[in-house]
Write a structure and sequence with these properties.
The complex is a heterodimer of chains A (345) and B (83).
Chain A (H helix, E strand, L loop, with lengths): L9 H33 L7 H31 L4 H8 L6 H12 L7 H10 L4 H13 L2 H11 L1 H24 L8 H5 L13 H36 L6 H4 L6 H9 L6 H13 L4 H13 L2 H7 L5 H25 L1
Helix pairs in contact in A: 1-2, 1-10, 2-7, 2-10, 4-6, 4-8, 5-6, 6-8, 6-14, 7-8, 7-13, 8-16, 10-13, 12-14, 13-14, 14-16
Chain B lengths: L1 E6 L4 H17 L3 E6 L2 H5 L8 E4 L2 E5 L5 H14 L1
Parallel strand pairs in B: 1-2
Antiparallel strand pairs in B: 1-3, 3-4
Helix pairs in contact in B: 1-3
Classes of the chains: A mainly alpha (345), B alpha+beta (83).
């Protein structure tokens, strides 16, 4: 077995983690007062002026979102070090449909997942006897309940909306997977998948707490490194909209009355897969100007859950009818969700 | 000579694993063959459930993430000692 010694001693890792936490908390609480001071006092922009409002928005939201992203991704990554696809497979083995769907959806949130792993994961699950529908519940939950999307929703709309998003994602994953299971589409899985012999799982790694912290920090660097520029651009555009666009300017085209706003939002979301982080601030500003919540939720889910690259990847193991059914059910569920929330909120 | 295989179908993480591996090999100044495995049937032979995967001399040393150069150096050294 390979032993990896961490570059820092455990004590040093704990000290750095502790210090980082304190600094984070201080920074997070100082952002708003500092932003307002900078825009309104230091630069003497009027509180009602377009430029003043845009700048205050930008100076407040950019550090806030980046801090939230770092903090939340760190915590989520620590949780994820306790899970692995191998462990999830063991946990799901032998569970019937129904319970299996619920468990698979929940595990989809905490198991580390990237779209390019969809195929090995699918094969691994199916080969070890996990029902097709249960596997699909996992495959719907994992990308849709995406940590960047959740953090963005949390930072821009608050925990209630973020919680709503997670709950809706779970409901879609559980019922979508269950439905696919009932449709008995096993014959639409590519034949070679069934021929792969399942010969026992790879052992997962044994992780110590210092290693967990280092891994989580690595994830933060990786993800924030990928999205920070999009976040910056998104918040800049959002700031412009916030400061310059008249209130309710969008109510007619993106508000509840525009029945077509939900399907259009979903369509627009499909090609935007990798830009959940940048797109959200713009959307948040649009909401402020009259776009409605259901449309936004639908849009967010379409961006992360309907991914063309993932569809192309899954085509290797799913025959076209099953692939179309899979994405069709997700799309339908997202559209229904959009209408539902526009109606009730 | 070590045989290093990168398991993955070409997403950015897989490319990162390849470049980290090549750098580690170059820094250690050892002889190693680096092969990219992109076909899923071949990848599944290694029983991993998440890509990218790193295989040295037939043994999976890392799966599902991009290891640091320090980690790859450790794997390579271990493999050399086991040869």
């Amino acid at each position: 077995m390979n032993t990896i010694s961490p570059p820092n001693s455990p004590a040093r890792t704990y000290w750095i983690a502790g210090l980082a936490t304190v600094l984070w908390l201080a920074a997070y609480n100082l952002v708003k007062p500092l932003a307002e001071w900078a825009a309104y006092s230091a630069l003497r922009l009027g509180r009602a002026s377009h430029l003043g409002q845009s700048l205050a928005f930008f100076l407040y939201d950019l550090p806030k979102i980046l801090l939230l992203l770092s903090g939340m991704i760190f915590i989520i990554s620590i949780i994820r070090t306790f899970f692995s696809p191998e462990r999830t497979r063991t946990l799901l083995g032998g569970k019937r449909e129904g319970i299996g769907n619920v468990l698979a959806a929940l595990l989809g949130i905490v198991t580390p997942f990237c779209s390019c792993s969809a195929v090995p994961l699918f094969i691994g699950f199916v080969e070890s006897g996990i029902p097709l529908g249960v596997t699909f519940s996992f495959l719907i939950a994992a990308p849709v309940i995406n940590e960047v999307a959740i953090v963005m929703l949390l930072g821009l709309f608050g925990w209630k909306i973020a919680g709503l998003y997670i709950t809706t994602g779970l409901v879609i994953a559980i019922s979508g997977g269950f439905l696919i299971g009932r449709l008995k589409m096993e014959r639409f899985v590519e034949d070679f998948v069934w021929k792969i012999q399942y010969q026992g799982a790879l052992e997962g790694e044994k992780l110590t707490w210092p290693l967990r912290i280092q891994r989580a920090w690595g994830s933060v660097k990786e993800i924030v490194g990928k999205v920070w520029l999009y976040v910056l651009i998104g918040i800049a555009v959002g700031a412009g909209i916030h400061g310059y666009m008249p209130e309710a300017a969008l109510a007619s085209i993106m508000g509840k009355q525009a029945w077509w706003s939900v399907p259009v939002a979903v369509l627009v979301g499909i090609p935007l897969y990798s830009n959940a982080a940048g797109v959200m601030p713009v959307v948040a500003a649009l909401i402020e100007k009259g776009a409605s919540l259901g449309t936004v939720l639908a849009f967010m889910m379409a961006v992360v859950g309907l991914s063309l690259p993932e569809a192309v990847i899954l085509r290797r193991v799913l025959k076209l009818p099953l692939l179309v059914t899979f994405f069709g059910i997700i799309t339908l569920a997202i559209i229904i969700t959009g209408y539902l929330f526009n109606w009730i909120i | 000579m070590l045989t290093i295989k990168i398991l993955g179908s070409g997403c950015p993480n897989c490319k990162n694993v390849e470049s980290v591996a090549r750098k580690a090999v170059a820094d250690l100044a050892i002889e190693a063959e680096v092969i990219k495995v992109t076909d899923y049937v071949d990848i599944m032979a290694y029983k991993i459930m998440s890509t990218p995967g790193l295989v040295i001399n037939g043994k999976v040393v890392c799966a599902g993430r991009v290891p640091s150069q320090a980690e790859v150096t450790t794997y390579l050294t271990n493999a050399l000692m086991a040869e």
